[in-house]
Design a protein that fits this description.
This protein is mostly helical. It folds into 2 domains: 75 residues, no CATH class; 85 residues. Helix content is 49%, strand content 0%. It contains 7 helices and no strands. Helix 1 packs parallel to helix 4, helix 2 packs across helix 4 and helix 4 runs antiparallel to helix 5. The radius of gyration is 17 Å and the shape is globular.
């Protein structure tokens, strides 16, 4: 991953595979070098008729890391949610509560088309627990998050 994209800033299917493997093996510290880097792009649809050169320093990483190049599979919203949820669980395993809370917020405030999915509900449950560990009370959730109510009919932390 680091050879293709030294910043690991373009989210690929390999990001998710790595975090899944680290989670299954409970080797959370192995995922930290990737999790600590910000994701700033997703694989782009190639717009050039000529394939960009990977070795070119002027070519953005998102231009050559595409589904067509074979360096990533098709990315769906569920993949991004799962990556951030598993990343939060890795930070929880390493007792890095602030980073875990940040990753859980990424899952909760990410846009969706329709009601929240099960990954978002699981992220909300963990968000409440980690918030209690950090602040001693339930953390205030972002205003943009309203979809948990669509899953189980309540947003009260005690009932979730």
């Amino acid at each position: 991953m680091l050879r293709l994209d030294p910043t690991t800033g373009v989210f690929t299917s390999t990001h998710l595979l790595l975090v899944r493997l680290c989670h299954e093996a409970r080797a959370y510290s192995e995922a930290i070098p990737i999790l600590d880097n910000y994701i700033h792009a997703f694989p782009a649809t190639p717009t050039l008729h000529v394939a960009p050169l990977i070795c070119s320093e002027q070519t953005p990483n998102s231009q050559y890391i595409t589904e067509k190049s074979g360096l990533s599979e098709k990315i769906k919203a569920e993949h991004v949610h799962e990556y951030f949820l598993l990343g939060a669980m890795a930070y929880i395993g390493l007792r890095q509560w602030e980073q875990a809370l940040l990753f859980l917020e990424f899952v909760l405030v990410s846009p969706t088309q329709g009601p929240a999915n099960g990954l978002m509900l699981e992220a909300y449950r963990k968000y409440v627990l980690v918030g209690c560990l950090i602040e001693g009370k339930v953390s205030v959730i972002a205003v943009t998050f309203h979809n948990v109510h669509d899953i189980d009919g309540t947003t009260a932390p005690a009932t979730i």
